[in-house]
Amino acid sequence: MFRIEILRCTLSRSHPQRFSRASFLLSTWYSPESISAADNDDDPVLVKLSVAIRDSYKDPPLEFSSFTYCPSIRKVLPSLSVHHVVDLINHNPLSLPHCSIFAFFKFISSQPGFRFTVETYFVMARFLAVHEMFTEAQSLIELVVSRKGKNSASSVFISLVEMRGTPMCGFLVDALMITYTDLGFIPDAIQCFRLSRKHRFDVPIRGCGNLLDRMMKLNPTGTIWGFYMEILDAGFPLNVYVFNILMNKFCKEGNISDAQKVFDEITKRSLQPTVIRKEMDQNGIELDRVGFSALICGMCKEGRVIDAERALREMMRAGMKPDDVTYTMMMDAFCKKGDAQTGFKLLKEMQSDGHVPSVVTYNVLLNGLCKLGQMKNADMLLDAMLNIGVVPDDITYNTLLEGHHRHANASKHYKQKPEIGIVADLASYKSIVNELYRASKDHRNR
């Protein structure tokens, strides 16, 4: 019932889940490294390779054929090792266009007998990210993960450790988490997050956001809550919508104690219960009406009416008005506890707040009065309903009939209980009630 796509929109505003060029523009303090001319100390093979690429490269779609049929490329190939390719990426002694280096990388990786290590793929992916080729960088990481498969996070992540602190290494961690998540390897994605904390990388905000979104759809609520607490402790930004969804899920599952923990965690991390609105404003976060309503609903179902009313007051102090459903739930909870007086107090508040109670709300109060045996008050409430134009339904009349039957003739002597069903109108109801009272009076006079 709770639309995860709303959650996705909320997360994407602060933690985009995909890597567009616009979202990864380079900061002004950093520009891609390059060397304008080859140094005398450069490896001769690397220099020859760079010259061959420079002289043979053609723009797509001819880049592969340009390398395939270039004599200078063919001449240098037997001397090449993975080390030379990594040096080409990292040093680029002739300042070759980044597209030409990537084209050669793809070309050489397709050659028989030439195999790159995981580290080499990450070096190339980082190079592409530095030059804002994020889609291409992501595709390389997807290639690595698809080849390594499940339960590979530890062996793959270790290749990133030596790159910690270099430009765009954070992108690689995010991209790796997203790739594992999108392939359905959730334990691997979680392991990547934990390894990033162990090796003191920055918090992978986008990777965590993407993983959290996926877990919301697939995993048990308790597992989601545990992971959310873990990433919050690491520095993942608070997101009130996630709290609301988790509270709602716990309440629907009947797990009110955990829903209360979620609510308490918000106040613990950011808010003070007694000055909730002020603290919300200062922290730039607020618990919305959905979250409060879910918490109140769960507490009412569990019979914790005092806690539910306290949450209702916090909600109102935070500047949010309860809706008809929330008021009615509260009235029903108090009436079931035998406290119809508080139920009517809430009815008055509801009306003062501009709400027009429906027949459902009145039925809740009528049921509470009937259970207490306050049949005169129940009939007065029925008259009040009719006077203000609220049309009773079958539940209204049947509730009243049950109440009159229960309290007007409790003796076993009266065995002709009226048929309980839909009562056509008020006249029929009053006729049946009068018969009940006459039967009760006759029984007492015997």
Automatic annotation (TrEMBL):
InterPro entries: PPR_rpt, TPR-like_helical_dom_sf. PPR repeats lie at residues 239-273, 288-322, 323-357, 358-392. Signal peptide: none annotated. Coiled coil: none annotated. Pfam families: PPR_1 (PF12854), PPR_2 (PF13041). Keywords: Repeat. Belongs to the PPR family. P subfamily. This is (thale cress) hypothetical protein.
